[in-house]
């Protein structure tokens, strides 16, 4: 059943509706084995629905879904032995302690590494003796994280796992994921925290309204976007606004600030050079900008 | 205190669907009792005969109240119903105060409220006012139905006031409990313990010389001897208790941090025991508390029924019209009585089976089933874990009820054989209980959103058919839908295997059908 083709998850044309509401509308996603794959999208874009389909909790309406070489709906139990899951909204049994929950989930998956469990508890500074009802949101999330990370699952499905963690714990989490990656395991990381995705992910898929809008390595995605340039020249800057690929130009005699499409960067530089560049700063596009560019128009529609 | 008025209005709005049912329940209990008592004992001679037959029966006195009440018909109503309706009203107050104080604080809703221009004491003040208004309504309604059914005005005013007073005592006790404990469940547990103690103390007092009854709020209410002596001063005892408890609660509230209690929650185990390692281990852990409570409750109720079994014969001889309500008529009075009460116990026990099965649905909607089903746990194993607890638990609950009834009856007639006999009678209803539970499972599989409503409709239907078929003249075909109608009414009738096997097979089929639906559908909605 091992995925020899190098893909831990392969989704093509996945559709899922709840009544009339379309949660997924032809979603594509390929996660390569041994990589950390970032899964980005605004609230309600279908990230959690996708993960629930992968867990066999929801049945796909249409499309092809393969995970670890199996069918998530049909082979759910066999596949679940090989994966660990952290839900976005962690609900625990109020009367059961965190330590008990970690052991219970581990045993039901087929065993967990006691030493690693205790190490993780220390790392995340979590008291396992407290009843779950007394945990804050962040602490409930830590319980689920420890349960997942203490397993030796080959695939980790993490649905916004750090939304309740403080920066210190966020750093611990990043170290843990890097460790998982070094061990050659695969991670699907749905997230809102772009710095986290930039730090951890080999590839990123951006989804919107149940459809994949971008997918690739961060370098590839940056190519699709713009670099911000601030420049001061010896001669007056003229004719900049006519250039292809230049946007949001602010021009004042010898100073200019603008964004340029990565593909046009070379042409713009050739144009600037003869004018005598005195200073120039260029800022690479952040994932943030990438993200906002894809959702900006959605917000405009919402307004 | 700032903002208490607004909070009170908001609380009333939140209670507008729930509270009327509590008020209705308490009113109907009193209304039915008043009508029935006045029908059964409409002459002073009847009442005198009742005094003779019940006055010497310790069990009845322990269950109901002081025999002095039996000296007038109004007092007889109080004797029979006051302790029970007190429990209903006390629980109403406990939930009213608990829900709007500690439960809100625990969920974080109260934090939002307190961040507004609302004083530290406003929430508790508003919740206690709400409880006060609810108790006033109880008092007025009880007054209305007792006077309306022809009881004297002065006694009825006192009856209403005493009942409202008991309610206020428990509202105040809850106000203290929610300061002490950090979570609402623990506070409810403490108040329930106080309520249990109040009932037991008054039982012990009423059987003995009456001293212990003065330690119980229910005892204070009964010892107004409304309709007999019309004593008002026990209400002052209540007022003093209410004042003291509210003062303590307010003082504690003034000293504690938001969200904290006096008692720190205890730490639990750092690692899971060997038992907590499978879906069944989890289901057992989640339901064992409820199972123990149900088994103990039905054991006690069974014991209460059983303890008066022996007096029933005498009672029916004195009141031949009662025999009409017993399935065996006047001939087999005791067996008819034992059979009817065993069926009543089984009907109540059905609620446990249904609650246990619906737990699976609750786990699903709360999102707690998701991490379990993301492990190597199949849907079949997950559902089965809850159903095993439901089925085995139902058997245990029924056995406990039968054992309680048989033991208590056996003790009064010195017959050790009654306990195992009644366990057998009660277990005869297991297939019926399982069938009703299986209806819940079928609904969980195919109509999950309606499952809770459908399951309880089935329970209600079985109860109505079983208990009121004759008085409501329900047609035969409509009665036959209830599994209880197909269970032989032991010990009056012999338990035959065929109907029980058919019911059990049907239950298994429905449960399998429910699983077939669950296997197919999306989970978590």
From TrEMBL, chain A:
Segments forming domain ABC transporter = 9-234
Q: Tell where it localizes.
A: Cell membrane
UniProt cross-references to Gene3D superfamilies, sorted A to Z:
P-loop containing nucleotide triphosphate hydrolases (3.40.50.300)
**Membrane topology per record:** Peripheral membrane protein
Q: Which Pfam families match?
A: ABC_tran, DrrA1-3_C
InterPro entries noted in UniProt: AAA+_ATPase, ABC_transporter-like_ATP-bd, ABC_transporter-like_CS, ABC_transporter_ATP-binding, DrrA1/2-like_C, P-loop_NTPase
| Domain of life according to the entry | Bacteria
Specify where it is mainly localized: membrane
Could you list this entry's UniProt keywords, alphabetically sorted: Antibiotic resistance, ATP-binding, Nucleotide-binding, Transport
Gene Ontology MF term list: ATP binding
Question: Transmembrane stretches, by residue range?
Answer: none
Keyword rRNA-binding annotated: no
Keyword ATP-binding present in the record's keywords: the answer is yes
PANTHER family recorded: ABC TRANSPORTER ATP-BINDING PROTEIN (PTHR42711), ABC TRANSPORTER ATP-BINDING PROTEIN NATA (PTHR42711:SF5)
Q: Which family does it belong to?
A: Belongs to the ABC transporter superfamily.
Q: List the protein's name.
A: Tetronasin ABC transporter ATP-binding protein
Species name: Phytohabitans aurantiacus
Automatic annotation (TrEMBL), chain B:
* Keyword Transmembrane helix part of the UniProt annotation: yes
The protein's name in its UniProt record: Exporter of polyketide antibiotics
Q: Which UniProt keywords apply?
A: Membrane, Transmembrane, Transmembrane helix
Instruction: Please report the organism this UniProt entry assigns to the protein.
Output: Phytohabitans aurantiacus
Residues that span the membrane, as ranges: 77-97, 124-145, 157-178, 185-205, 232-254, 291-308, 337-359, 380-403, 423-447, 454-474, 494-518
Say yes or no: keyword ATP-binding present: no
């Amino acid at each position: 059943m091992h995925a020899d083709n190098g893909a831990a998850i392969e989704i093509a044309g996945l559709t899922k509706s709840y009544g009339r509401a379309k949660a997924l509308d032809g979603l594509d996603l390929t996660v390569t084995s041994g990589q950390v794959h970032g899964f980005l999208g605004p609230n309600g874009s279908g990230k959690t629905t996708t993960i629930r389909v992968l867990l066999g909790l929801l049945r796909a309406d249409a499309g092809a879904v393969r995970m670890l070489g199996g069918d998530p709906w049909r082979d759910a139990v066999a596949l679940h032995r090989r994966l660990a899951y952290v839900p976005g909204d962690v609900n625990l049994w109020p009367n059961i302690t965190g330590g008990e929950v970690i052991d219970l989930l581990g045993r039901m998956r087929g065993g967990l590494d006691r030493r690693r469990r205790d190490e993780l508890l220390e790392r995340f500074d979590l008291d396992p003796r407290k009843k779950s009802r007394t945990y804050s949101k962040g602490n409930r999330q830590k319980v689920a994280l420890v349960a997942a990370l203490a397993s030796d699952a080959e695939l980790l499905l993490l649905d916004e796992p750090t939304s309740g963690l403080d920066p210190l714990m966020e750093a611990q989490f990043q170290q843990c994921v890097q460790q998982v990656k070094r061990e050659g395991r695969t991670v699907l990381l749905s997230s809102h925290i772009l710095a986290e995705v930039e730090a951890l992910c080999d590839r990123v898929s951006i989804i919107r309204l149940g459809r994949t809008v971008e997918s690739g390595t961060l370098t590839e995605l940056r190519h699709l976007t713009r670099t911000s340039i601030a420049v001061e020249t010896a001669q007056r800057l003229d004719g900049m606004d006519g250039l292809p690929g230049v946007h949001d130009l602010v021009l004042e005699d010898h100073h200019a600030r603008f964004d340029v499409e990565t593909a046009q960067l070379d042409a713009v530089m050739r144009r600037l050079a003869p004018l005598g560049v005195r200073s120039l700063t260029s800022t690479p596009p952040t994932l943030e900008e990438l993200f906002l560019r894809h959702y900006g128009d959605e917000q405009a529609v919402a307004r | 205190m700032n903002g208490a008025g607004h909070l009170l209005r908001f609380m009333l709005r939140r209670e507008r669907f729930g509270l009327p049912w509590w008020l209705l329940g308490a009113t109907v209990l009193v209304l039915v009792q008043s009508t029935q008592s006045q029908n059964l004992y409409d002459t002073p001679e009847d009442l005198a005969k009742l005094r003779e037959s019940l006055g010497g029966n310790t069990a009845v006195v322990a269950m109901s109240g002081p025999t002095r009440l039996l000296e007038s018909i109004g007092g007889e109503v109080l004797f029979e119903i006051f302790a029970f309706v007190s429990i209903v009203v006390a629980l109403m107050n406990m939930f009213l105060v608990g829900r709007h104080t500690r439960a809100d604080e625990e969920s974080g809703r109260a934090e939002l409220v307190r961040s507004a221009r609302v004083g530290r004491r406003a929430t508790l003040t508003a919740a206690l006012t709400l409880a006060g208004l609810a108790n006033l309504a109880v008092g007025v309604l009880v007054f209305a139905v007792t006077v309306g059914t022809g009881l004297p005005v002065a006694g009825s005013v006192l009856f209403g006031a005493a009942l409202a007073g008991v309610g206020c005592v428990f509202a105040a006790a809850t106000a203290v409990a929610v300061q002490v404990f950090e979570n609402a469940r623990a506070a409810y547990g403490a108040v329930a313990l106080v309520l249990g103690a109040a009932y037991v103390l008054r039982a012990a007092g009423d059987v003995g010389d009456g001293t212990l009854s003065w330690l119980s709020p229910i005892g204070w209410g009964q010892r107004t001897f409304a309709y007999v002596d019309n004593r008002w001063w026990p209400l002052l005892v209540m007022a003093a208790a209410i004042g003291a408890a509210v003062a303590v609660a307010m003082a504690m509230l003034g000293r504690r941090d938001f969200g904290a209690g006096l008692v720190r929650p205890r730490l639990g185990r750092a690692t899971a025991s060997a038992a907590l390692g499978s879906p069944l281990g989890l289901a057992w852990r989640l339901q064992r508390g409820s199972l123990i409570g149900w088994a103990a409750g039905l054991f006690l109720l069974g014991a209460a029924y059983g303890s008066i079994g022996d007096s029933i014969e005498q009672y029916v001889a004195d009141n031949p019209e009662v025999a009409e309500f017993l399935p065996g008529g006047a001939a087999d009075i005791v067996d008819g009585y034992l059979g009817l009460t065993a069926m009543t116990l089984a009907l109540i026990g059905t609620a446990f089976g249904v609650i246990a099965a619906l737990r699976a649905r609750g786990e699903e909607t709360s999102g707690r089933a998701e991490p379990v089903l993301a492990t190597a746990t199949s849907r079949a194993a997950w559902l089965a874990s809850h159903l095993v607890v439901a089925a085995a638990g139902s058997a245990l609950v029924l056995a406990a009820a039968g054992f309680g009834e048989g033991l208590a009856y056996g003790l009064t007639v010195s017959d050790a054989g009654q306990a195992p006999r009644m366990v057998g009678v009660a277990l005869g209803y297991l297939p019926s209980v399982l069938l009703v539970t299986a209806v819940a499972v079928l609904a969980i599989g195919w109509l999950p959103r309606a499952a809770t409503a459908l399951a309880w409709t089935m329970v209600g239907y079985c109860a109505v058919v079983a208990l009121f078929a004759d008085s409501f003249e329900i047609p035969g075909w409509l009665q036959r839908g209830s599994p209880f109608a197909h269970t032989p009414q032991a010990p009056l009738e012999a338990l035959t295997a065929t109907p029980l096997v058919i019911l059990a097979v049907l239950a298994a089929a429905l449960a399998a059908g429910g699983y077939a639906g669950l296997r197919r559908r999306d989970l978590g909605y």
